């Protein structure tokens, strides 16, 4: 695998999976711009990533803010003299809500703002960018085991991860006839700073995902041209692509919408041309 002619944007690259993706992308010879809100941590990772040669750049960014995401594309173009080819969205937070306290001003819905709304903005901005620059592009979202099952103690987190799967399947299916691909990785518990306390006990009982195999799933989504609108699940024991349809009715619905989807895509492509 080699990314020497690519520029990778990693949204949420200052901890956990995102940090590991920064180092791995640099090792694959990509130019990398990564975001985060912790300036000190971001600069430390950038320094470490650039030991061999200058190819990683940290840029502080609140990804819930559309203009801040737009700025990342401008900074990447100025720094590397080429536009972004791959967008990986890892930024996320755990539950921010409580049924016993509901105040929109205290950040109760921050989980949805970061995990879903910001990710939706990142997908739309990336797709628009690829259409405008007339180049092949790759978007990789991050879901979770909780994108498939309930999280009674973290319902907004689970809702956001379910929604990421819907977002990925929808954009990927729409763009399947183009050279723009949208996929998602749904890892089970990966050993990261987000897993603490009782959650860590549950993760250990279920089995944690080795970071290396988690990263392999992301780069499988980068390099496999057959994947679009697909979800790659990573468990402690295996990695597999989820079936595109779990019910014949779903496949029939997709088929019935084929002509409308094609018309909508033609209009989008005409707009950006």
Task: Summarize the structure in words.
The structure is a single chain. This protein has 273 residues and is α/β, with parallel strands linked by helices. It folds into 2 domains: 7-242, NAD(P)-binding Rossmann-like Domain (Rossmann fold, 3-Layer(aba) Sandwich); 247-273. 47% of the residues lie in helices and 15% in strands. It is built from 9 helices and 8 strands. The chain has helices at residues 16-27, 39-49, 66-80, 110-133, 155-174, 197-206, 211-223, 248-256, 258-272, and strands at 7-11, 31-36, 56-60, 86-89, 137-142, 180-187, 231-234, 239-241. It has an 8-stranded mixed sheet, with helices on both faces. α4 (110-133) links the parallel β4 and β5 (137-142). The longest helix is centred in the middle third of the chain and has 24 residues, at 110-133. The radius of gyration is 18 Å and the shape is globular. The chain starts with 6 loop residues before the first strand and ends with a helix.
What is the count of DSSP helices, taking H or I runs of 4+ residues?
9
Radius of gyration: 18 Å
User: What is the overall pLDDT average?
Assistant: 94
Largest sheet, spatial ordering of strands: 3-2-1-4-5-6-7-8
- Can you write the helix and strand succession as a string? EHEHEHEHEHEHHEEHH
- Count of structural domains: 2
Query: Residue ranges: pLDDT <50 for 5 or more in a row?
Result: none
Helical content stands at 40-55%
The biggest beta sheet is recorded as: 8 strands, mixed
CATH class of the largest domain: Alpha Beta
Give the percentage of residues in beta strands. 15-25%
The structure class reads: alpha/beta
The CATH superfamily of the largest domain is identified as NAD(P)-binding Rossmann-like Domain
The CATH topology assignment of the largest domain is Rossmann fold
CA distance, first residue to last residue: 32 Å
């Amino acid at each position: 695998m080699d990314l020497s002619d690519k520029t990778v944007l990693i949204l949420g690259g200052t901890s956990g999976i995102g940090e590991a993706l920064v180092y791995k992308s640099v090792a694959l010879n990509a130019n990398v711009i990564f975001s985060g809100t912790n300036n000190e941590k971001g600069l430390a990772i950038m320094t470490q990533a650039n030991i061999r040669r200058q190819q990683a750049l940290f840029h502080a960014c609140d990804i819930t803010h559309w203009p801040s995401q737009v700025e990342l594309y401008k900074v990447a173009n100025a720094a590397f003299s080429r536009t972004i080819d791959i967008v990986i969205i890892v930024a996320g937070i755990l539950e921010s809500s409580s049924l016993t306290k509901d105040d929109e001003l205290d950040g109760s819905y921050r989980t949805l703002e970061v995990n879903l709304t910001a990710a939706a903005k990142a997908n739309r901005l990336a797709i628009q960018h690829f259409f405008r620059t007339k180049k092949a592009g790759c978007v990789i979202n991050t879901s979770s085991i909780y994108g498939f099952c309930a999280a009674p103690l973290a319902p907004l987190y689970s809702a956001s991860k379910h929604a990421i799967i819907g977002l990925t399947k929808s954009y990927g299916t729409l763009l399947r006839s183009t050279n723009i691909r949208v996929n998602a990785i749904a890892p089970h518990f990966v050993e990261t700073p987000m897993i603490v306390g009782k959650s860590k006990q549950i993760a250990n009982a279920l089995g944690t995902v080795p970071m290396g195999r988690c990263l392999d799933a992301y780069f499988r989504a980068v390099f496999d041209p057959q994947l679009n609108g697909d979800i790659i699940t990573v468990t402690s024991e295996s990695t597999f692509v989820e079936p595109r349809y779990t019910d014949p009715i779903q496949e029939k619905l997709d088929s019935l919408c084929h002509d409308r989807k094609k018309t909508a895509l033609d209009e989008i492509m005409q707009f950006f041309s």
